[in-house]
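thought: fold this chain, then report.
action: predict
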Amino acid sequence: MQQVNWGIIGCGDVTEVKSGPAFNKVPNSKLVAVMRRDAAKAADYAQRHQVPKWYSNADELINDTEVNAIYIATPPGSHEAYALAAINAGKPVYVEKPMALSYNAAKNIAAAAKAKNIPLTVAHYRRAQPLFKKIKALISEGAIGDVRIAHLELYKPALTTAQLATSQQAWRVDPAVAGGGLFHDLAPHQLDLLYYFFGDVQKASGIATNQAGDYKADDLVTGNILFKSGIAFSGSWCFNAAATTDNCEIVGSLGSIYFSVFGGNSITVIAKGVTNTYSFETLQHVQQPMIEATVQYFLGQGPNPCTGEEGAEVMRLLEAFTTG
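observation:
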């Protein structure tokens, strides 16, 4: 393979700006086909983004001989079936987060890719962004000494009746489609970063409940992790709060790192009485650094930026927090 010719399954909202245009901006990468079950919407996306081909059937896209890699951007409930179909066709897969509907489904995808020696990358794209790479570097170089504990809070107001009536929001709080609610939609980014920063998990547990009763999924989750390194984590997620909070603090023996996962472009480090702030530009396409790393991996020119096994581990943590 000299160039990655991408086919997208599920060219919905996430692909409009966050990922889709980046496939044509990365070296040795081209978006050649898209698929959506609604043929009119697939054709419209292809026309607006200058994509040569469109399909309303995933098997036709997967079996297109020009397509040599598949990006799965559908809701999690269909990830396993589409990923296995692509893997069985011998085509590398870049699959959206959360990796699948369940931990078992994620393990099935990872096992199939390993058995057939097919490249598989999970789109935990914050790993590749400069801001979060800087946090990992600060931890590794001992900027705050030995890390002791991390704490995270993500609170958001409840979805409105109008929002719940839209297809763009309704699927996110339908456990049959999303695996859970907004926790399953947003927390994978955060839990993957913790895994990326701190390594393997020794044990994890949590509680989850539906306080407001606005939909079937849980709207409040708390969880704890003890990493094998001895670092402890605690987190709380509330999706029926009065206001939005998005904070993460990493505490070390010499100081602390403060940042926001979703809403900020800066890192604050306070150590030994000195405060340093690191600021970063807003990315036009937030997945572009991860897509570039994935293309390099698919071409045999770099490591896998997020393996199927790592994606499955995040699914295991989601379930540890929400199923007791």
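thought: worth noting. The domain at 4-126+288-306 is CATH 3.40.50.720 (Rossmann fold).
final: tokens above.
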